[in-house]
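User: Predict the full complex structure for these chains.
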Amino acid sequence: MASQRTEGDRHRPATGKSSCECVADHPLTEDQLAADVQTLAAAGSETRYEALRLIAGAESGVCVCELEPALGVSQGAVSQALSRLYAAGLVRRRKEGRWRYYTVTPRAERLLAVMDETRALDDE
Amino acid sequence: MASQRTEGDRHRPATGKSSCECVADHPLTEDQLAADVQTLAAAGSETRYEALRLIAGAESGVCVCELEPALGVSQGAVSQALSRLYAAGLVRRRKEGRWRYYTVTPRAERLLAVMDETRALDDE
DNA sequence: TGCTAATATTAGAACACGCTAATATAATTG
DNA sequence: CAATTATATTAGCGTGTTCTAATATTAGCA
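Assistant: Here is the predicted structure of the four-chain assembly.
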């Protein structure tokens, strides 16, 4: 019904009020939405996505110094990338002696799995 | 093994060559990786993610003018957001008379489903 | 044919991002 | 303890992003 347009249904100019009276409001809270966006944005960068893939592919954790040559950016950049992935809940850290090992979270695993599974779905 | 560190295993300074000899190389092609990043980055913005949610929540397509008040940005911005989602393979367009209806692709549906399903996985 | 409505496109401004280089912190080793 | 190694943090720079406002395009209608 919301998408049914009749004669009298005109284009409302943007009034600035985003009260959404025309489409079914999504059942997500502000916080959930923001968290999702943070997660997706964290994964949505070449360096970070590649890092995530490398971490997911390793058996028992990867440390920063191993990622540096693989990603081809500076140590600082790797650290920043991992911090961002951590903040987004996509990786976990484990400190062991002088090193810090990173592993992926279940959420990241599921996300990567979906990316793999739906790649073939060549938007028909 | 790659993550096993012994005495002689030193930190190699970044030589600029990113040939990745230390971690198992991920089985993704350059193109697949770039496409995934584009998809995730497209979804990873407040405006676009909210648009995606609204489109996914509607039964049979949403048009731009319906999204404008809901998203609270200008018409041009909505159009740009939808174009980006389209380029990323997350939505489909259908032209009908004067309007253009947007629907989500199976890939987007799966992606949103995973975000919902894994939200509870409060990184244990 | 003009007129209006829906959407797309463009230019430009404000801001965010991602990198490097340098420096700081923390843990290990001699 | 000093020296070294792994990682984190910070400043700053170039670039990309995302918005608005204005304009262009396209389709229906009088």
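The radius of gyration of chain A is 20 Å.
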